[in-house]
Amino acid sequence: MNKAVSAGGVIIKIVDNTPKILLVYFHDDPYRGNVTFPKGHLNEGESEEQAAVREVVEETGLQNPWIVRKLGIVSRFAKEDTGETVLKDIHLFLMQIDSFVHTEAEERYGWFSYEEALERLSFQEEKDFLKKIWSKITKSNH
Questions:
Q1: How far from chain centre, in Å, is Cα 85?
Q2: Mean pLDDT by 10 residues, the chain (142 residues)
């Protein structure tokens, strides 16, 4: 089985004293309710960090995010555009941003509470990752 590498970001903002996490709708389908972290494949010669920042900007329209630290890697099976199933390693980074103004975005996105995110994330591996990191990232963002 072939492997694939992706990178993306985890961004939290506080809304009415509640931490909300930024997620994108899976395959631009807000009606199914499935969401994932903003992320994507690395381009030729691109580092994981560079890809993570680029993908967050492209998929969410947020401008100038920066990496605070690496949170970890989610490994899960994924179907590529070619139809091939691969084992994908998704490198996820905690990011911050000065302004939560979204410009034009490639994907539909939403801000979700922890409970909403756990309910709607499409992959169990991503739910487990969020459970593992949530208390660490929300404490560092208050």
A1: 20
A2: 94 92 76 81 96 96 95 92 91 94 87 94 95 86 45
Would you say 109 and 102 are in contact if contact means Cβ atoms under 8 Å apart?
yes
Answer for the pair 15, 111: CB distance below 8 angstroms, yes or no: yes
| Domains along the sequence of the chain with CATH | 3-137 (3.90.79.10)
CB 25 within 8 A of CB 112: no
pTM to 2 decimals?
0.90
SS3 100: coil
User: Residue 125 burial by CB count (10 A; 0-12/13-18/19+): exposed, middle or buried?
Assistant: middle
